[in-house]
Design goal:
With 566 residues, this protein is an alpha+beta fold. The chain contains twelve helices and 27 strands. It is 24% helix and 31% strand. The strands form seven sheets. A six-stranded mixed sheet has the order 4-7-2-1-10-12, with no helix packed on it. It is elongated. Bound molecules: zinc ion.
């Protein structure tokens, strides 16, 4: 999601909603492979009707019930289908009619979870081939959340999904957890004057699209929190596509007609270049197209896979800049293609997107963009109320909204920046590329990331990840110094003054800058072991310094609380 500032404004509103809680659980032994949703929207009513086709894989000895999250809908029917999961497309009414459903499955639904008994794989129905099966569920109702229906800033009716973190279940029957990615197709029936955008591409059709009927489909599995549709009146502009060998990735900007010229010329002016920077640094764009969509998301921006939604107000106010576009675009690699396996590892998504906002900015406009962005990240973290908590924070696992905080975002970005400083650019980017290709279209934890980085850097970084991901806080240093003219050395005392609960920090390369009498500066790196609260170091220096500065380039997330001559 986009900048935290815009997000904080909505937290209060979100907190009022009945957030599903406690749904974090181990990886199930029923894995959904593919969702196909046929959604009927109305111009005059908020009631939606959905046919959901869920194809899943059962592992031997797995549960005998498929449990789908679905809140507040009326379930009309549940049955197995006779469709092969590989080739069945519920696009047209004819195709849907051909899908025979077997005698209704005796499912149970308590308004929150739909439980579908599965029987034995070999006898349940002819559709159960090997360990795959498909169920079809018809339901209808007015979504209490997740699918937001209403009027946009210009007074026109629009419908937008807004699923993060576990709000897909208010309108989509899903295993609604970040660790359970699946492919998704949407067939959407909408008023004829509307356009509908979603994840993936519009598949090849033997007959052209019928007016008012839209079909989008992904080839890659994506998290349920990014499975979205957006529907309303849009102007769609095509920006220069990204060309990767034989692949052409269309780059589209979907905007309310009133805001289209602004969007194309200001925030999305360099939308293609932003993707190209990420491709140079990491890997080819992970999806078939990229649409940047103006929407009524609660968040400043929401990184839905291949269909990013942005809050409408900054368009209307003409205040929207490029930073949120860089952030959300970076998420397509980190967060969408490689997804945090569970919420406590959210920094793998938000810390990366926050860092790459600055990294892409630096690639386009010079290094000072990253320097300024890291300075702002440090300031945001220092003044936050989460410095007593670690980044990987299982205390908030059941309430992921609380993880939209300064640990996941700016401190997460700092972890990457300091890791880069510790192992060097080459090992850092090689490590990120290996991490990305290893976990693409899958999920990862912080431990997975650490393992890949340690291998690429050929060094044990347990101390680094432990102190920055699992310890709270940051180093606060008191530095005293005096010059020993006889030995021609500066003698320094460095004391870690942070709260004892934060623990001590190891700083193997703390840069000190000495301004000597003629105004020249000399730099020396010293090591702070982190074994003791106080470190004493002696640094060769031929002249007495007039001033000492700590970490002059701002390479570390630390604060100097006092510095002076002893
Ligand atoms: Zn984000």
């Amino acid at each position: 999601m986009g900048c935290m500032r815009s997000r904080l404004l909505v937290l209060a509103a979100v907190a009022l909603l009945s957030m599903p809680r406690g749904s974090v659980s181990p990886k199930p032994r029923i894995g959904v492979l593919d969702y196909r949703f046929v959604v009927t929207l109305s111009e005059s009513s908020d009631t939606i009707a959905v046919d959901a086709y869920v194809t899943f894989e059962r592992s031997p000895g797995g549960p005998d019930t498929l449990s789908l999250d679905l809140i507040g809908m009326t379930v009309d029917s549940v049955g197995y289908t006779n469709a092969m999961w590989t080739n069945y497309v519920p696009y047209s009414d004819t195709a849907r009619a051909k899908v025979k459903r077997f005698a209704p499955v005796r499912s149970s639904y308590d308004g929150r979870v739909l439980r579908i008994p599965l029987g034995k794989p070999s006898t349940a129905s002819p559709s159960v081939r090997q360990n795959y099966a498909q169920v079809a569920i018809s339901y209808h109702g007015v979504p209490q959340d997740g699918l937001i229906e209403g009027t946009n800033a210009h007074g026109h009716r629009v419908v937008f999904a807004d699923n993060w973190p576990e709000r897909a279940r208010f309108w989509l029957a899903t295993v609604d957890r970040p660790g359970d990615k699946a492919r998704v197709s949407f067939v959407v029936h909408a008023p004829r004057s509307w356009k509908v955008v979603s994840n993936g591409v519009q598949p090849f059709l033997e007959q052209p699209h019928e007016p008012g009927r839209w079909w989008w489909s992904t080839h890659e599995p994506i998290p349920t929190y990014t499975m979205v549709i957006g529907a309303g009146e849009f102007t769609v502009s095509q920006h220069r596509p990204v060309i990767n060998g034989r692949d052409t990735i269309p780059l589209e900007v979907w905007t309310y007609p009133e805001d289209s010229a602004f969007a194309d010329s200001v925030p999305f002016r360099r939308a293609t270049e932003i993707v190209e920077v990420m491709q140079r640094l990491i890997a080819p764009f992970p999806y078939e197209k990229l649409a940047h969509v103006q929407s009524s998301t609660k968040f400043g921006g929401m990184e839905n896979s291949s269909a990013i939604f942005y809050a409408e107000k900054p368009y209307v106010d003409r205040t929207m800049g490029e930073g949120v576009v860089r952030h959300e675009t970076a998420h397509q690699w980190f967060g969408d293609a490689v997804t945090e396996r569970d919420w406590p590892h959210l920094w793998l998504s938000e810390g990366f997107a926050t860092y790459f906002d600055g990294v892409i900015g630096a690639a386009l406009d010079g290094d000072s963009v990253l320097v300024n962005s890291m300075r702002a990240n440090a300031a945001a973290y220092f003044k936050s109320d989460v410095t007593d908590r670690p980044i990987v924070d299982s205390g908030y696992a059941a309430d992921p909204i609380k993880l939209l905080n300064a640990n996941s975002y700016p401190k997460g970005a700092w972890v990457l920046h300091m890791l880069r400083g510790t192992i060097g650019d080459s090992a850092f980017f090689r490590g990120l590329r290996t991490y990305y290709t290893t976990y693409r279209d899958s999920t990862a934890t912080s431990e997975d990331f650490q393992r890949v980085i340690e291998k690429e850097a050929r060094t044990n970084l347990g101390w680094f990840f432990h102190q920055w991901l699992y310890q709270p806080g940051y180093p606060q240093l008191d530095v005293t110094w005096q010059y020993d003219a006889g030995a021609r050395k500066v003698v320094l005392g460095i004391t870690q003054r942070q709260k004892p609960e934060w623990g001590l920090f190891r700083l193997p390369a703390l840069t000190l800058e000495f301004r000597v009498a003629n105004g020249a500066t000399v730099r020396r790196d010293v090591a702070v072991s982190g074994d003791n609260r106080e470190t004493s170091v002696r640094v060769d220096l031929p002249f007495a310094p007039a001033e000492v500065r700590v970490d002059p380039d701002g390479k570390l997330l630390l604060r100097v609380t006092a510095i002076g001559r002893r």
